[in-house]
């Protein structure tokens, strides 16, 4: 009689768990993004994305995304409008600045919510515009540029300026390259590692003017040397 068959071979080991998603893993998707930090800015977010869609008609297809605060009262209306327009909504917890604003504008206090941009790791690149911005020409080619951090420019930035904090104390000095950054327009590569670093930085550092710009200027200057675009 033939020899008895031996025990079956052990099953192959299970595949390792996937690594946390990050932009470095090769996503090819890109998106236009804006922030609805308040109910009035939710209306502006819809208009901002509509202006981009009009300016970039006939160009590459990209997602349109609204980062929307979970504290909005206008949630249902925003969802309905976004569905009609084909826009995506990403609900986020608002992040507030720790310093008071000179003009007490709530939307500036909530500007730290822009840190959520670096969590959009399903996209290789995102182009962010503030909800009070309108685009009349399409900067589509900037998606194909550097993989680093790009930002809008402020042509009136002087060569060297010392800033005062909200109490009038001189606290920070910046070069022209950094001062030229306007955080109302940014092109960036989402990354969970950068987001974590930003969170730690926001906890340990103070914004020199209480806004997201006062936080992001020194962070970018130290960790993400920017390319400034007009």
Description:
It is a single chain. Mean pLDDT is 75; it is low at 15-21 and 155-179. With 230 residues, the chain is α/β, with parallel strands linked by helices. It is built from 6 helices and 9 strands, in the order βαβαβαββββαβααβ. It is globular. Strands 3-2-1-4-8-5-9 form a 7-stranded mixed β-sheet, sandwiched between helices. Strands 6-7 form a two-stranded antiparallel sheet. Strand 1 (30-36), helix 1 and strand 2 form a beta-alpha-beta unit. The chain has a domain at 25-147 and 183-207: Spore Coat Polysaccharide Biosynthesis Protein SpsA, Chain A (Alpha-Beta Complex), CATH 3.90.550.
Task: Map the helices and strands.
Blueprint: E1 30-36, H1 39-55, E2 63-69, H2 75-85, E3 88-92, H3 106-109, E4 125-129, E5 150-153, E6 160-164, E7 170-175, H4 176-179, E8 181-188, H5 192-204, H6 212-223, E9 227-229
Parallel strand pairs: 1-2, 1-4, 2-3, 5-9
Antiparallel strand pairs: 4-8, 5-8, 6-7
Helix pairs in contact: 1-2
CATH domain fold name of the domain at 25-147 and 183-207: Spore Coat Polysaccharide Biosynthesis Protein SpsA, Chain A
Principal-axes geometry comes out as globular
CATH arch. level architecture of the domain at 25-147 and 183-207: Alpha-Beta Complex
Radius of gyration: 22 Å
The N- and C-terminal alpha carbons lie at a distance of: 85 Å
Strand content: 15-25%
- Helices, by number, come to 6
